[in-house]
Amino acid sequence: MTSLPQAVGRSPVRRLAGTLHRRPRLRLSLLLTAPLLWLAVLYLGSLAVLFVSAFWTTNSFTSEVVKVWSTDNFHQLLTTPVYRQVILRSVGVALAVTLLCAVIAFPVAFYTARIARPERRPLLVVAILTPLWASYLVKVYAWRLILSQGGLADWALKPLGLSGPGYGLVAAIIALTYLWLPYMILPIHTALEQLPANLLDASADLGARAGRTFRSVVLPMVLPSVAAGSVFTFSLSLGDYITVQIVGGKTQLIGNVVYSNIELNLPMAAALGTVPVVVIVVYLLAMRRTGALSSL
Predict the structure, then answer these.
(1) 128 neighbors 112 (Cβ within 8 angstroms)
(2) Distance CA 172, CA 181 (A)
(3) Which of 77, 85, 98, 79 is nearest to 274 (CA)?
């Protein structure tokens, strides 16, 4: 008799569980409703507001925003040489950081995935992830001290008759490469770890040398993971402005120009802010052809 109330009390839950079990689409929609609503309202909504405000103008006397539809901001972006230089410099920095991350990440990932002992590989992965736990500003200011005049970079290069790069574009690329390097190492490490060993053995049995094996076997299978890591390094570098402001000296990138125009000319800042969004969308469409998005 005591089990009957318990069974009755659990019956609505059981009926709901049975309904969700019989209807996987309903179960999936309930799971995705909250995150999709959050994405639509906050992320996509903010992008929509950004895009709309880019077509507004600013009163030249009062600096107040005038909500009148105009394409003057985008026309100014395309016709003003300074803005074009800033955009091209920002894209070039993002590409340089991505290339450096790929060049550095591949041998590191190859060692952690194929050469290191299996029991040490988790520790190496943790060591790669450890810098991500540190504060962003702490790491950037550490690089400011390293690259400063008389800093660690000057001390290390002094025996060679050289000096550190100081503050500027090169310093910004170095700092950004350090910041986003783990995002490139981890996808490549995963791809190399899943690479079947029998493919390497078969290549060696067929007489292929190490270089040929790398070009014909390893690189085609790892390239989608490299592209997946480049999505992070490229987008994060393109939108960064704090690192450039701290170690970049007089270097101006898109993020710095947006930050300096927020209070002076908000519509122009919004127009500049749409440039990284458009560039990243184009970059994602290009990476989609390599299968990188399926590796994320």
Answers:
(1) yes
(2) 14
(3) 77
For residue 204, give the 3-state DSSP assignment: helix
Whole-model pTM above 0.85?
no
Q: What is the rounded CA–CA span in Å between residue 196 and residue 133?
A: 32
One-character DSSP codes across 222-282: HHHHHHHHHHHHHHHHHH--HHHHHHSTT---HHHHHHHHTTT-HHHHHHHHHHHHHHHHH
Pairing mode of beta strands 57-58, 65-66: antiparallel
- Of 142, 124, 123, the closest CA to residue 134 belongs to 142
**Structural domains of the chain, with CATH:** 3-53 (no CATH), 65-295 (1.10.3720.10)
Q: What SS3 state is found at 259?
A: helix
Rounded Cα–Cα distance for residues 170 and 168 (Å): 6
Name the residue with tokens 């790491």: 139
Residue 46 token pair: 């903010």
Question: Phi and psi for 44 in degrees, rounded to 5?
Answer: -65, -35
Structure-token pair, residue 140: 């950037």
C-alpha angle with apex 13: 8 to 17, nearest 5 degrees?
A: 135
The number of beta carbons lying within 10 Å of the beta carbon of residue 136 is 12
Tokens of residue 96, six digits: 């340089």
Tell me the pLDDT tens digit for each residue of 31-78. Answer: 778 777 887 777 788 888 888 888 888 877 777 888 888 888 898 888
